[in-house]
Amino acid sequence: MSKEHISAIVLAAGFSSRMGTLKALLPWQGIPLIQYQMEQLKNAGIVEIIMVLGHKADELAQVISPYDVKSVFNEHYRDGKSSSIKKGVSCMTDNPSGIFILAVDQPVPSFILQKMVEHFRIDQPSIVIPSYQGKRGHPILFQGNLKEELLTVNEQSKGLRKVIQTYHDEISYLDVRDPAILLNLNEPNDYFHKN
């Protein structure tokens, strides 16, 4: 299994209502957050990157247009994050060995992604979740054979939680010793205290 077989789905369709401004365009290490995410994935060797857009899709599409990523529009983005996960998974071009699912407001540096891929390649668990000081973080890396399960997620069953609960005994927690995996930029305080 090589990095070329890992696909990544970046969820960037939400309203950013709690932040009060479009989170994907917030500056992060000198560039828009959505651009930072793409560059980290590219640096980690992820070839297929699917950007799921919804709210202000045209604006975000312009930012990501110079990159070799697939942008798809989730016409049901108002229904919640699960609809974006299903849209992204359904747009993958092949059957990858692994599927990263990332939210645009959860920036993670490339070396963590690389560690996760390497761990995944060697141990081949159903799910890899990074952890820091015993706390679970993100992103989550799923075996490609869980594609069908990912296509059935919905808001009623708490999205990815159902898949994680179903395969609870097949999860590998990877200690990355970096608090970046806990970042979740939902509100202005989250952003201004971390940036």
UniProtKB/TrEMBL annotation:
Domain MobA-like NTP transferase: 8-167
Record keywords, A-Z: Transferase
Domain of life: Bacteria
SUPFAM superfamilies referenced in this protein's UniProt entry, alphabetically: Nucleotide-diphospho-sugar transferases
UniProt keyword Ligase present: no
Keyword Repeat carried by entry: no
The protein's name: NTP transferase domain-containing protein
Organism of origin: Virgibacillus byunsanensis
Pfam families, A to Z: NTP_transf_3 (PF12804)
A molecular function (GO) term: transferase activity
